[in-house]
From TrEMBL:
This is tRNA (guanine-N(1)-)-methyltransferase. Residues 5-225 form the tRNA methyltransferase TRMD/TRM10-type domain. Keywords: Cytoplasm, Methyltransferase, S-adenosyl-L-methionine, Transferase, tRNA processing. It comes from the Bacteria. It comes from Pannonibacter tanglangensis. InterPro entries: Alpha/beta_knot_MTases (IPR029028), tRNA_m1G_MeTrfase_C_sf (IPR023148), tRNA_m1G_MeTrfase_TrmD (IPR002649), tRNA_m1G_MTases_N (IPR029026), tRNA_MeTrfase_TRMD/TRM10 (IPR016009). Pfam families: tRNA_m1G_MT (PF01746). GO terms for molecular function: tRNA (guanine(37)-N1)-methyltransferase activity.
């Protein structure tokens, strides 16, 4: 079973959205587990301080290495081979490929950063993998951790009712997903593309691929370039030579 452990200064933020919909139902059915731990429990002074001023000066505060290390050690089980993730804006961008790797594993220990950052020494000493969910700044890593876990849990066996749905979504094929339509057949004068009601599954598949390719090229040139690199166009076949009949005998 996928087991997630969250180290945070705000444990009441969990499960939050993870307690609803697909992830919430899977959690109640025991298809994955969620444990939250308070980093502040490992503070040693009477104020339960977990941060201090940055070495060298500067704005803000930094999460202390000794306190976070103690929290990580206390949360690590014997023979625990789960990856240790630190939600951080300077981390490697989270991709669907990494999400699939995590979903296939035993779980994850996730550290939710706060303040200006985390002491670099604990990142190195506890082999934390820094992960980013986008090029923007949040107040802390909790929302990022929820985002990561939502992406992972839906891929766990038995969570999604229709496995094909997950296999055709954006990023799974390297392309953005094609447009979707449903009833009514007419919405404010806008109809459904005729090909989708034709019943011709080959034409429908070709239309969806063409739309996905066009959307990706227009909106995500980076994904489009990667897709082209992974799917180079096939060289055209040489034209067939016309069969020549032997000359008629005289």
């Amino acid at each position: 079973m996928f087991a997630a452990t969250i180290l945070t200064l705000y444990p009441d933020m969990f499960p939050g959205p993870l307690g609803q919909s697909l992830s919430g139902r899977a959690l109640s059915e025991g298809k994955w587990s969620l444990e939250t731990r308070q980093i502040r429990d490992h503070a040693s002074d009477r104020h339960r301080s977990v941060d201090d001023t940055p070495a060298g000066g500067g704005a803000g505060m930094v999460l202390r290495a000794d306190i976070l290390a103690a929290a990580i050690d206390a949360a690590t089980r014997p023979d625990d081979d789960r990856p240790r993730l630190l939600m951080s804006p300077r981390g490697r961008p989270l991709t669907q490929a990494r999400v699939r790797e995590l979903a296939a594993g035993p779980g994850a220990l996730i550290v939710c950063g706060r303040f200006e950052g985390v002491d670099q020494r604990v990142i190195e000493a506890r082999a934390l993998e820094e992960v980013s969910i986008g090029d923007y700044i949040l107040s802390g890593g909790e929302i990022a951790a929820i985002t990561l876990l939502d992406a992972v849990v839906r891929l766990l066996p038995g969570v999604m009712g229709n496995q094909e749905s997950g296999e055709t979504e954006s990023f799974e094929t390297g392309l953005l997903e094609h447009p979707h339509y449903t009833r009514p057949a007419d919405f404010e004068g806008r109809g459904i593309p005729e090909v989708l009601t034709s019943g011709n599954h080959r034409k429908i598949a070709d239309w969806r691929l063409a739309e996905a390719m066009a959307l990706t090229q227009a909106r995500r040139p980076d994904l489009w370039d990667a897709y082209l690199a992974a799917h180079p166009p096939k060289p055209p076949r040489p034209p067939r030579r016309k069969r020549q009949d032997p000359p008629a005998s005289t």
